[in-house]
């Protein structure tokens, strides 16, 4: 029976990796939120959060505009710290209907140490795809006034206890009833909040009945002596929950890790036939607990990562898989050119997969669209085409959701002020594209 199961899994893996068809995508809308978009924090927020980027260097620096953003060695032309909070890092999206979307921002500059003055929040936007505009209707800041976070936070001694990028790295968001669930990379944790952003509960991550942690988990403790054993963890830094889908009835969440778990017994990351796989876990929202069930999403290449995950129906979903490249090929570096002013490694692998959560424990790849090969017959693009195609050449593409039976939305995380993927030396805007992909969504 075990041999039969292994054979079935191997056949399915071969099918998912090599027999997946590409479907065409047509650009039907293109909205842009300018990179340099700042907002203020509420009046009851601490002074710490009224500016942003003071801890980008090893030594605190409160002077505005003294550090230039850098994208893979290329200056982006944007200087910080900022006099406010950038509306940046779009790391998760939920379609609310009627052209309204909830979009989550991430922890800011990338790690706990440099993001302690960065507020955590999500925005509700009305997107005008016809005119290409973001209309921000509401901002909800995350905070912990009732002390539900079980460890020390940056704003511990304040009344409202606004959460920061030094506490969590939020990457995915879902609405279930009166609550908001957020996937975090640092713990990794699932955060549960009310609609006002107040934390209700924090859930540790269980995989096969055991708690798994990243090196940023605050419960890990270094040994007293360098000769002692280091604490063990299973989740690579910045590879916690990146995507988190929800079932149509809201009863189940499907948080997806960005990186393969490390197996201490084998001394390797989880893989099948050398191909790394990522865990999609199942979380019961009626009980607020992990069910123990999971699926394996196999990467096309072990260096790849995922960007977002949302369900189409109760069995099929959308997952972004991407490599670590950025930039358009028309601006790629020619031999001998200074790589500070061109793309040394232009964007290559940027896809949205349709997957099936199968009974055999696999997230089977059914079909894909190539975000570097989008048709624009109606001249909708607000950015230059490349070889007649609309391309989405961003390092991190972290937003995808279904709009209707024929359309999806896709958005980038602009890592402001650190990513420049359309122009070698210009910070990226936040972009949201509407794609017509009816045949892709119907693929089986």
Mind sketching the topology for me?
Layout: H1 2-18, E1 21-22, E2 26-33, E3 38-39, E4 67-71, E5 74-80, E6 85-86, E7 90-97, E8 100-105, E9 121-128, E10 133-141, E11 170-176, E12 179-184, E13 189-194, E14 199-207, E15 210-212, E16 241-246, E17 252-257, E18 262-263, E19 268-269, E20 271-272, E21 275-284, E22 289-298, E23 305-311, E24 316-322, E25 350-357, E26 363-370, E27 396-404, E28 407-413, E29 430-436, H2 438-442
**Helix/strand/pairing category:** mainly beta
Largest pleated sheet: 5 strands, mixed
Tertiary shape: globular
CA radius of gyration: 21 Å
User: What is the β-strand count?
Assistant: 29
Major sheet: arrangement of strands: 1-26-25-24-23
Beginning-to-end CA distance, first to last residue: 28 Å
Helix content: under 10%
Question: Ranges with pLDDT <50 over ≥5 residues?
Answer: 1-8
Individual helix count: 2
> What's the overall average pLDDT, rounded?
95
Share of β-strand residues: 35-45%
Short account of what is shown:
The chain has 444 residues and is mainly β. The chain has 2 helices and 29 strands.
Which structural traits does this protein have?
29 strands, five-stranded antiparallel β-sheet, five-stranded mixed β-sheet, 444 residues, mainly beta
Task: Write structural notes for this entry.
This protein has 444 residues and is mostly beta strands. It has two helices and 29 strands. The protein is 5% helix and 40% strand. It has a five-stranded mixed sheet with strand order 1-26-25-24-23. Strands 11-12-13-14-15 form a five-stranded antiparallel sheet, with no helix packed on it.
């Amino acid at each position: 029976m075990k041999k039969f199961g292994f054979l079935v899994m191997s056949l399915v893996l071969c099918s998912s990796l090599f027999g997946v068809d590409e479907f065409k995508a047509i650009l039907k809308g293109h909205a842009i939120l300018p990179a340099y978009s700042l907002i203020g924090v509420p009046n009851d927020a601490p002074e710490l959060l009224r500016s942003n980027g003071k801890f980008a260097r090893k030594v605190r620096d409160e002077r505005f505009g003294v550090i230039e953003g850098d994208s893979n060695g290329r200056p982006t032309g944007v200087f910080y710290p900022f006099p406010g909070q950038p509306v940046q890092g779009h790391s998760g999206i939920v379609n609310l209907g009627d052209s309204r979307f909830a979009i989550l921002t991430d922890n800011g500059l990338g790690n706990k140490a440099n993001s302690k003055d960065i507020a955590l929040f999500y925005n509700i936007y009305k997107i005008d795809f016809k005119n290409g505009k973001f209309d921000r209707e509401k901002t909800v800041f995350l905070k912990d006034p009732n002390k539900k976070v079980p460890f020390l936070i940056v704003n511990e001694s304040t009344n409202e206890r606004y959460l920061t990028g030094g506490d969590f790295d939020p990457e995915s968001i879902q609405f279930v009833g009166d609550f908001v669930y957020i996937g975090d990379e640092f713990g990794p944790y699932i955060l549960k909040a009310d609609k006002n952003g107040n934390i209700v509960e924090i859930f540790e991550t269980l995989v096969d009945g055991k708690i798994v942690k990243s090196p940023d988990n605050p419960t890990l403790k270094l040994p007293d002596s360098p000769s002692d054993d280091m604490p063990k963890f299973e989740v690579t830094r910045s590879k916690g929950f990146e995507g988190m889908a929800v079932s149509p009835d809201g009863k189940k969440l499907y948080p997806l890790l960005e990186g393969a778990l490390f197996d201490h017994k084998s001394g390797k990351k989880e893989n099948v036939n050398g191909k790394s796989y990522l865990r999609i876990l199942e979380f019961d929202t009626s009980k607020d607990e992990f069910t123990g069930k999971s699926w394996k999403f196999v990467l096309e290449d072990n260096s790849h990562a995922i960007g977002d995950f949302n369900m189409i129906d109760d069995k099929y979903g959308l997952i972004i898989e991407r490599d670590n490249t950025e930039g358009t090929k028309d601006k790629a570096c020619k031999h001998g050119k200074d790589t500070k002013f061109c793309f040394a490694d232009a964007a290559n692998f940027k896809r949205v997969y349709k997957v099936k959560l199968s009974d055999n424990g696999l997230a089977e790849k059914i079909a894909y669209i190539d975000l570097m090969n989008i048709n624009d017959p109606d001249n909708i693009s607000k950015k230059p085409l490349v070889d007649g195609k609309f391309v989405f050449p961003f390092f991190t593409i972290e937003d995808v959701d279904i709009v209707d039976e024929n359309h999806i939305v896709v958005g980038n995380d602009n890592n402001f002020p650190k990513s420049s993927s359309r122009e070698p030396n210009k910070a990226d805007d936040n972009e949201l594209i509407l794609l017509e992909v009816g045949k892709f969504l119907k693929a089986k």
